[in-house]
Amino acid sequence: MATEVARLGAAEVWERVSAEHPGVDPRGDLDAGARAGARLVCPGDPQWPIELDSLDLLREDPAAARGAPLCLWVRGVGDLRALAPLSVAVVGCRAATSYGLHLAGEISFDLAERGWTVVSGAAFGIDAAAHRGALAAQGSTVAILASGVDVPYPAAHAGLLAEIASAGAVVSEVAPGTPPYRRRFLTRNRLIAALCRGTVIVEAGLRSGALNTVAHARRLGRQIMAVPGPVTSSTSAGCHRLLRDFREQTVLVTSADDICEEIAGVGSFAPRDVAAGARDSLSLVVRELLDAMPARASVGASTLAKALGLRAQDVLAMLGPLVVEGLVESVPGGYRLTPLGRAPSNTPPGGRTGPV
What is the reported pTM? Predict the structure, then answer.
């Protein structure tokens, strides 16, 4: 059907097949969409997200479910064409643990604060936590449904979907009033994967539907990212299997910083926090003094002064506070490093300095 529409145009195809589908009422669908506050977006329209066109490249793949949608019903303030280039999917299992819910919310909050649009499926568990995290950051989020945009599913998320529409968009490829059938969840997953630059899976069992979204992302060449969990947790088993069986395509991530490093522009790197050492708050000259001291043997102040090109009284002035700090100890042969003083510095030469 999609091939025929592309070749002949929607009007001519409908003219040919309308007799075979007497229950389909395009005008009624448009009226229902208008009542729900939804608009119809078609390929070529100004708001059409061109990222979805890549699905047509997989049309011949029997595992790819379906190609690009013929149209999208969109309810909300968001412009999908504008949101898609900076969109990331955050998906996972419905029966999520408190660990998964916390991480999904925190990661989505941080992504939204950085200007990313969080895309998910509005299901219980990880999906809902992802949407709520983005909303808490006053960012944009998109929910892609397996039902019509006027059929909240699950019903308990009617309020959440209304919030999503006010900050982003609620999207479906099926007409208003359409109920959510099981197969539609699998076909809508391809839209989540195709719309986004990458897919993050937070928690998923070995048979989780979220893995279906990841499979679509993998076929599309999108970045796949998995959040690890306890090795004893069945809800993280799917994430761990991805990291093991698809290690060339799956990146372990634990934060929004990690995610941005994978899917943001060239030159974006997550900060690498290094634990502060005992020497890190010391000035450069004092660290050089400690480096000049033997690891185990004692040494006199005059010997240190000669090695550093300093006066002996200046070296003694530095050694006194170091003894108080527990980095150096006074012994009969002079001074020697304590175990704390032998710990290396994590600050490179010329780095930050502090008091002696």
Answer: 0.73
